[in-house]
Protein 1
Amino acid sequence: MKHSVNRPPTPDAADDRGKEPTLQEIINIKLIESGEKERLMELLRERLMECGWKDEMKALCRAYIKKKGRNNVTVDDLVHLITPKGRASIPDSVKAELLQRIRSFLVSATL
Amino acid sequence: MCARNSLYTNIKPCKHLADYKLRCGFNGYNSLQNCLKTTPNGRSRVDKHDTTIPRCSFCNGYQGRLYICLMCSSISCSSHILLHTQSENGHEVALDIDRSELYCCLCCDQVYDPDFDKVVVSKQVRDLPGGKSNGFEVCSGRSSKRRRIDSGIELDLKKSKQLISMRDRRAKSCYPLGLRGLNNLGSTCFMNSVLQALLHAPPLRNYFLSDRHNRDQCRKRSGEKLCLLCDIDAISSAMFSGDRTPYSPAQFLFSWWQHSSNLASYEEQDAHEFFISVLDGIHEKESKVRNSSKDDGDCQCIAHRAFSGLLRSDVTCITCGFTSTTYDPCIDISLDWEANNFSSSNVANKPIKTDEKMGLSTLSGCLNLFTRAERLGSDQKLYCQNCQELRDSSKQLSIRRLPLVLCLHIKRFEHSLVRKMSRKIDQYLQFPFSLDMTPYLSSSIVRSRFGNRLFAFEYDNSDSSAEYEIFAMIAHSGMLESGHYVTYLRLKNQWYKCDDAWISEVDEGTVRASQCYMLFYVQKMLYYKSNEDLSCMRISPRRDPCVSTAGCC
């Protein structure tokens, strides 16, 4: 089975149901429920498009498809191809902006 | 019935998807339709109205890509989706929850089904506020006003062939007909360069060669001494007369000074500004003659018939997604400079100097920038009819109708009011000789708002009138205040440089290496047609012109 680069380190599903949700999970749930996650995703998409990151990833995918042939490539291949490079090439300014937004959300959520 | 563009509906389903459809038809799609939720920007996701967030049934993970099985609605993540297929027979097709896109678990790949996309898009349209009038023209049986190529050339081509049938014996060079230098009358290279481009634009060239604007009739009709069209007609006759000695367009310059008195001087002017003012002058005269005040979209003057297109502007409210659409005619497109300043050296936190621009700027980059959805600043809130208040909005331009001749103006001159200075962007811009404008059409832009869908829109221009060939390029060299304009013309796939009075043959490399300022493209069919006409002219021994018939050459 392929290792998904997104796979979180998780124990068995059976054990997990009894455990307390981690802090990460709680934050994530709060973000989704309030709709903030959707807004953050939109903001992220916009920023990544503006700085050319999206075009860069598109170019990578195109080059790969050209090399392998259009019928020999699956979406999973492309995801595995660009995930490490994509994560590494996100500009610091974008990271900083999103962190700032999440922080201010957390502050307002606990009030 | 919508006209379907085959490009978007001819994707074959994989075996597993085809099996699924045979077994279940549209039941799965329709029941999922109720679970689809649309966000204001057009993304569609599956939302089952549960209070809990979706989690993989194998690992309880909630991150990454999650898929919902079309048969049993169980949710798996991308690592475990294969397990689900293996454990249940017949559960091969799933749906990506965040993106509403079909996924075949056995092929491990995304699959496409136009029927499914129709279900998704109709839900999206239903959800958007304003319903059908929301910037999205659903198939309503309205006949699309497609600009047909013929409409620009109901011109009598027979006449033009007779006019140029006698090859001029005086011409010593083997240059094609119509190439002639224009003398510089005192910093008038801006005028010469635009005239060269205009006179070789196929619709205009044919117009003048077919004597559609007869100077004698014009004088009798209007009684005015000044007519820009008459003067251009005179230049056109001079260009195609066969005489290769450089011509001085003094009469035209004088007429133009009268028309645009604010630009009348011996100073260097901007070629683009001149271009607009000439077209304006042509239009003015025409509308005076015909006494019509038709708007630019329907005007039949030669300037508009050749250059007029229609731009679509969509303003979308960020909060609710309501889109209001307006259409504006245009005679050219001015493109902002696309600064491609992202390159792989941005990776790993390497510092970049702020004035260093890496990467290649291309015409398609500029066109992408032109049609990109732009978030308007918070100081530019617009009134949203649906929310009934001022809201943050995003604006997106696209081309509703392409002109016969497409003039692209590259904004190389930056004037900053703040810093009270102007500068020229000297960088090289890469541009193609064959240009496909399909991605910038309204149909493509609007379609892309619905994601990766195979869905045909009512006004798909399925006739290939989005393909263009370049025939002229005006290049600028030098500085902002004191530069020089030169036109490169492409006749029968050979490039010629028109530098005021000097015409020379040049190779493609020279053209590509120049700093393009204005690019002139003509619809592909017109380009090949016009090249055919001239080259098929033969003079038989009896001196009768051999009129070409289709397919004779």
Protein 2
Amino acid sequence: MVTKSDTRPTSKQKQFNLLTTFGYDETCDPTSIISNPSVRPTYRIRFLHMDSVGLRLKIMDDLTTEVIVPEGEYESPDEEHVKKSQGKTSNFPLAPPVFKETPKESGFHKTIRTCLQKIREAMLHHRWLEASQFMSSYCQTLEDTTATMPQLQSEMIWKMGTEILHHNPNSKIEDYNSFYERMKNSGVKQYLVVCLEHAFHFLVKGHFEEAKRQLSIAESWRYGRKSAGQSQRIKLIQAYKGFLDYLIWCNKKATLSIMDDPDAGAIQEMHSYFRQSSVNLKEVMKTPGVWDPFLLSYVDMQEFYNDHDGALKVLNNYSYDNGFPPNPNAHVYLYQYLKKHEAPPKEQIQVLKILHALVPSHALMLEYCSLLLQSGKQSNFGKALGVCLDLLDYACWRNSLDVWSQVKNILLRLRTSEGWSEIVEELMVKRKDWWPALHFTHSSSSKENGELEEIKIFVAEVLCPSASMYSYQVKRQSRGESLCKTKKTKRKRNYVTSRKCRENLKRKREQTSRGRQHKDQCV
Amino acid sequence: MDYTFPPELFTSYFHSGPPNSEFAHNVGGWGVYGQVKEASSITKQHGTAATLPEHTQFATKHQMEGETWLPVESLTLPLFPPKRGRKWHSTALSDPLDFSEHMQDYYLHRSQDAFYTMSQFLEENLHSVNTKGKTSVLSRTQGFMETLKYKKCAVTYLKPRIKAYHNLLSDVIYDIPPELLAHNLYEELTQQRELEQFSEVATGGALCYIPFSQLNNTQQGCLLYPGDPGLHSLNFHRLALEFHAEGPPCIDSSLRPFSFQLDGTVRQICTGTPQDTSNVGVRSDYTCGVWMVSEKNEPKTVEVIQTKEVATCLSISPHIQGELLVASESGVAHLWTVGKGLQKFRKEDSNMYFNARSAWRWCDFTGHPRVMIYADRTGVELTDIRTNENCSHTLFRIGQTPDCKTGERVIMSKYLREVHMFHHLITTQFSAYILDERFPCIPMVKWDHMMEDPPMFAHVLASNSSGAGTTKVVLGSQRSQELTLLQYSGGRQDACCTRGPPAALLRPRDSLSHLPAQIPHRHHIAQQRLALKAAGVTCIQQNQGARDICVLQLTEAGDVFYQMLRPQVASCKEDVTTPTQNSEDVGLPTSVQHRSSIDTLISQDMSVDREKSKGSLGSTSPGPTVDCGFERRGTDLPCFKVVVNDDPEETDLGLSGFELDNRQGVSSSASRPAEASTACAARPSLAKAGDDALLKWKIWLFKLVRKNHRKQRFPHNTIRARGLLDKSGETESRWREPMEEDKRDSLRRDVKEAMKRGKFLVHGATHLPPMEPVSVPGSVEPSAWTDDLSQRLSVSWEGGWKVWWEESLGMNQESKMQALRRKRRRQKMARAHNRLELSGSFTTSVSYQSDMDDLSGYTSATSQSAASDSEGTRLSLFSDDLSEPGSYKTSQMHGRTARVNEEYQSSLQEASRGLFDEGVPSAPLATSSQVSSVFPSQRTPRVGGSSQTSLSQLKRKKARMGF
């Protein structure tokens, strides 16, 4: 039996001791928390002995298991289908139990389950210290040769361990590094993911160079047959590398622009960054997805080298390719690019038209409206009105003075033309049953200021003659300023006697009937 | 503003295929950044500043730091006293394989139904066959069933007659063929099990809160919840929540609720945006209703509709008053305008994207008043109801893009009007998603919520008015009562990102472990009651300033539990002074040193924690289990005041019954933090939350037990015997009469006071009448009682019971003989040593003679004692050397008694010298000398008049004193 005191002096080389990563004190027994004396000692000693040789062996183990047991990613869809049809009879969407007892499990497995449960509980309740204690013991699961899913175990340890490290105020970048490195090598499947996460961690902590190096390492990683998921991940890694290259390019560009006569070497270096970056970024943007930061950087570089066709091609592809998701930003970028390079308003309107179909509530719709109005065509006035009314459908624009005044302007301009009533009619036919309730009610009017009320009264009279009640309510309110004040003070009081309420109601009814009479007289 | 779409989103792949990954583990939500993008993209766009890439700020899709919200108390608290629950409820799942037992019960207890038809037919025939003609078929059947009742071996004990009947009639006697019944029962039980695990009708939750006005930190509001055993009534309960700047928050629920009786079980309650008058929608299985609630007026019913199929969803428009959406299991979704009736806008006979074999449908509103959400288990669609043709597009679907797992299904969808105009929350059994309806198909945010049961209830709390802080999502599951707090931020100027790890909140079912131990049956009742399924979740937050959050949870029994969450300030994190890292000195020795310093730091932490964990994990007593993690947090959390809403007399009862217990509970809970603080100062003393909470729970549990108390029905006949031995009636009043009320009160006070101090309450200190002196009985002289029994008793009083019996039965003859022999030998040796004369040989022969005598009883006692007499006095001089003084001093006794005594002594000595396993009752004594010195003196009263003994003792003592 080798004791701990023997192992310590020999551990000059870097020990594969996960315990220290989690701040484990070597004087305490890590397994004391887990109550299974039968399995404990052997595992513990093996664990403490795992130095670099052990690490290599471990990887070998993993490799063999990798080869023997292919994971779900390699399965053909047919197999999956068969599995599904054989599978659950219940159509109830329940998550499978987490801590399920398996029929053939040893005491060690039971201990693992208990330990995992404890870790989860502690982590969910944010008891990080307790979780780290359990975690230092849980790492022993990696030793288990009978585990059905060794990949899974290492993935779980990676995720939980990282989270615990994040919540340890004492954790240093070295701790992260060593942990990420170990986790990378404890499972082949997750090598790329861990590399990427490691790079992200460097980026967040401001270690730009290290992040770049991590990505390069990940990029050059080769192992066996690549699954679909892995090839995608490699693409993403390359794209991120390209993105970092772009950031360096930006920096170089800025420094060169300050210098009076830049030397050729520096320019050459900048170009090489551009080439690396653009190749990688262009590659990832061929596959459908959301690539906003990558696209922006690519377009920025193309713009700098005056390759407008290339930039436009990418932007158009990003906006109009059917395989891509309907990203509003794609159209926004295209519009902004066109606007920046002073493309004809017709093209701009075309882009905004599609954006309007996608997101009628977008802030650019106001620009669209003014573009339409600028065009001066009579037919576009109707469209502009439609755009504004669409904006007003949404609650976030409902009290916007800009939109309402825009509507008023359009209406004033439309009135001069012929057939304006048809246009209004066409726009309002779908809205007539709910617009009055949405915009022209007492409750909505009470929150508005005077200017907005004026405009709304005007619009209501034109668009919704049926909602003419609104104007009277508002007028009455503006007339009886004092009435409003008394009302507010009353609202502060919690309970108002029903008698007073009834009186109020009576008075209101009288006023409205008076208003109606007044209108009849006017007509 | 809400209309600003984030100018730059995080990257992600877009696939249209079905999900291709399996659910493998439940820890997916931790430790992953997800994606990364530049944080300050706008400044870069204009691109003037030449920032080094090292100085670029990056934002990740999952940010590790979120707000920390901790429960103020370590357990949830009941808001209202318990209502009478269902007559029976069990939280155990039914097993479909139990169908045979159900069948057995059916045949036994419903035999009239089970065999009705054939027994009617056969009755006459069987009568004619029956020679005696007395017993009917039914009684036979019953008899048969009686034999079945006991689980004997059916074949062995079958009566031949029954066997014959069985052979004849077994295939015709059942009304329902057993195979069919078994099959149907199995199916039914399977379905019931599934319903117990997950009943989708409860989606959305039946607990709502409408805030009214806020005055001086007092938030008025109305809590809506179903009451009564079957959740058949709708309660409008006015609450006042008082938030204090420093002090504890306080809930006042003292007003009586306004209640409506409904026809069906309340499944869902929903409210629109809070206005002066809010509409409230209530859904039960086949009816839906709208109520109107305002601060000033009583709530009143506006309209009720009935549906043909089970309604699965009801939602209220946040845009237009009086508009609701109703969806039912038929797949039809209606727009219900109050006063105008229903208007169908969509109908789906099958599931939308694939066959999920589910009739569950869901509807909700969106940012546009005429675009609706239509959802089933496979996905969520946006439906434009302005056009007649079905114009809709996907908002979310189970697929590869959001990285769904195989078998993942939509559980619920919620429009987050209060948080963001365009955001929707969609939960599945594995994850929770936030979707922006302007950019459908790609979730803005995804969490792995890591809950055991699917989250069916959700409440969302907006970030504070300035826009800082996080948006909080509270998810609640049904069966396991889990509550999970998730946080995210962004959605306007910045892309959305999740913040911090998910946090599990307290559950009512865990409360019992934090309370003092209960009597088993009471514990069982409480456990059953608290473990019932959850039925709704809601939160109350202060309007201005997000200081405290009150999370309320409803269970199926109609109980509402609440917990207060309080933000934890991150500034009090432990600052570890570590040397700043320079890129130059990354040499090995320094790094090693650095490493070791970290280790020692961590190990110190750990060692402290180990102590703590021993305290909290090892002990079963409710300890401070809420840990602070690595952070040093505020140690002095105030517990909050409780205004108990109770009937006065019930409260009185509860208090009088529990005061004592409560005191103990409080004292134990008060002592706990002290221990904890000695173990570690870093741990927050959350368990201190005791006093009020414990009191509240005490009352609640007491009432629960009272409510559940029913007349016990025993299986046997009982006779009323309560009055016979009951002293509560007359006796008590008679006893009470002399005691005046105030005297009793003062006595009670004194007792309490004494208990608090842990002292005795002396009679003299009270105002009770002096007690009559009781005369002390005279001393008993054992020698006066000479009969056998008395002797035995007095011996056994001194512990010699066994010996006495052995003596009287003659069982110890042999050992005595041996002891005697040994003694003689010793005497002989002593003598031989003393004087080497011829006479010595003579004495030996005498002693030999006496040994021989001994074999035949005690005949030659006199001669023997005479012989040993002269020796004894002389020998006693050296008795100290031999260390067995007892044997010598007693040897001078005369007569039989003396001899018995002597032998007893020696045997005792032998025994005590040996292993003490002889069974001498009261002599587990340390050394033989003690035995021998104690026993004779004790035995003196019985032996009587043996002055020589005392003399010899005196001598011996003198010798000792000489030492």
